[in-house]
UniProtKB/TrEMBL annotation:
Transmembrane segments: none annotated. It holds the Pfam family NmrA. Gene3D superfamilies: NAD(P)-binding Rossmann-like Domain, UDP-galactose 4-epimerase, domain 1. SUPFAM superfamilies: NAD(P)-binding Rossmann-fold domains. It comes from Streptomyces shaanxiensis. Signal peptide: none annotated. This is NAD(P)H-binding protein. Residues 8-105 form the NmrA-like domain. InterPro entries: Ergot_Alk_Oxidoreductase (IPR051604), NAD(P)-bd_dom_sf (IPR036291), NmrA-like (IPR008030).
Length: 289
């Protein structure tokens, strides 16, 4: 854990309304820093009080010029635009960031090759840090409909292991990298503190809500049918089959990045379930299975 700088810094967070970006905002505020959040539609942003919301689009880098004014740190995502296409504007974004006096940049790894991430890694003018989280605990929110309507979770590969990470811990590591010395040129794999099967996760949610949940194991064919019915495109389905059926070692190996960077242990899935139990307990009409 490096020493936190005491002076207030102003940080620009892109993707601030997303699962991780929101947590980066929360953690920066908790550290006492000024936060400016970039969004394509400022009127729809739902962010904590005290956040300066500005409009801009990563696919149009020059729209960031006003947002970068006075900023010391920049958190980036690797996709942009209304269809979440991979960004090709990394070099221009970094050029503008350097010109504005940005000293530190974090980039959230998108799970594969990225032109923006390549541009960040190649840039010698800023201290960059690449954040590489494994499976988000928030992915369990995809089970809410099944739990609320039938009291069950339907998943394939139920014995697969995951070192899934609390999204708040990703935000905490990002906030440290954006405001402290010593993180430049680093690539941080970020995991939770334990390996979990699907059954372990379902049991933790059931314990938090005080009501049993049935786990139904699907075949690959049934899972594909379920994902298609949910509207997932074929490339996403292919990714899910590979990620769940043949989880890479990095996704099932616990590392202590969170504790090293933040000085406290990574949060458990049971903690996450307790924090989000409301999502698994209520539905229209007040009926709970």
């Amino acid at each position: 854990m490096t020493q936190t700088q005491t002076q207030t810094q102003k940080i620009l967070v892109t993707g601030a309304t997303g699962t991780v970006g929101h947590q980066v905002v929360v953690e920066l505020l908790a550290r006492g820093h000024a936060v400016r959040a970039l969004t394509r539609d400022a009127a729809k942003a739902d962010l904590p009080a005290g956040v300066e919301v500005v409009q801009g689009d990563l696919t149009e880098p020059d729209s960031l010029i006003p947002a970068l004014d006075g900023v010391t740190g920049l958190h980036l995502i690797t996709f942009g635009g209304p269809y979440f296409a991979p960004l090709e504007t990394g070099p221009r974004i970094l050029q503008l960031a350097r010109a504005a006096g940005v000293r530190r940049v974090t980039v959230l790894h998108g799970g594969g090759p990225s032109l923006l991430e390549d541009a960040v890694r190649a840039d010698g003018g800023v201290d960059w840090t690449v954040l590489m989280p494994v499976e988000f605990m928030a992915n369990a929110l995809e089970w809410t409909d099944g739990i609320l309507t039938s009291g069950e979770v339907r998943e394939p590969f139920v014995s697969r292991l995951s070192a899934m990470v609390h999204e708040g811990d990703i935000g905490a590591v990002a906030a440290a990298a954006l405001t402290e010395e010593g993180h430049g040129g680093q690539e941080y794999v970020i995991t939770g503190p334990e390996l979990l099967t699907v059954a372990d996760k379902v049991a933790a949610i059931a314990d938090a809500r005080g009501r049993e949940i049935s786990l139904v194991e699907l075949t690959e064919e049934q899972a594909v049918e379920q994902w298609r019915a949910a509207g997932h495109p074929e490339d996403v389905i292919g990714f899910l089959l590979e990620a769940y059926g043949n989880t890479p070692e990095v996704g099932r190996t616990v590392v202590d990045t969170v504790e090293k960077i933040t000085g406290r242990p990574a949060r458990t899935f049971s903690q996450w379930a307790a924090e989000h139990v409301g999502a698994f307990k209520s539905q229209p009409g007040g009926v709970t299975p």
